[in-house]
Amino acid sequence: MKKRSIVLFVIFLTFGQIGAQTMNNDIQAQVSRLFVYTDQHEWEKLENTFAEKVLLDYSSFTGAAAVELTAAQIVQAWRAFLPGFQATHHQIGNYLVENDGNTAKVFCYGTATHYLPNESGKDVWVVVGSYDFELVKTESGWRVAAMKFNFKYQDGNTELPQLIQNAKQEEKK
Asked: What CATH number labels 2-172?
């Protein structure tokens, strides 16, 4: 009877760990989707990675205070800017996931490469940092409720965003 209890206990622990790992994989996948959909300009899918309201914090990079936005507002802003590049590539990794079943915190490294051929021949701008995410579990699955970028450094042509703005202004004329 004692051996049977020990075996059942070990089985219970194993399935608990498998369930927790599966949940962490789902959480991690949602963060990955956010970046893949951004690079692929899958705007509707991107919007569905976010909660209805999101605390977006790029203060370490822009100097602007964190702001609470709707998912639609975030996607609208990214949609107006990112297609100005010929390509973007977000690479993330080194995930650390903590969850309590209904909320989760995710840390990961991130590198964003932006490509825009231009007259200078300096076609690439790279931004490197890490992210802190908070996700909530909804009826539709995990959704990003907070996204904080922790800027480390940038390299390459930091003027590429201005080139996009200039091109947009020329289009309006």
From this structure: 3.10.450.50
What gap in Å lies between CA 82 and CA 103, rounded to an integer? 29
β 67-70/87-99 pair status:
unpaired
pTM, full prediction: 0.85
Sequence-distant (6+) residues with CB within 8 A of 72 are 47
Domain ranges in the chain? 2-172
Other Cβ atoms within 10 Å of 124 Cβ, number: 15
CA distance 2 to 11: 14
Compute the average pLDDT of residues 97-125: 96
pLDDT average, residue stretch 146-167 = 96
- Residue 117: pLDDT over 80: yes
Please give the span between the terminal C-alpha atoms of the chain, in angstroms, as a whole number. 84
Cα–Cα dist 145/51, whole Å: 5
Coil, helix or strand for 32? helix
For residue 9, how far is the Cα from the chain centroid? 38
pLDDT, residue 20, reads: 47
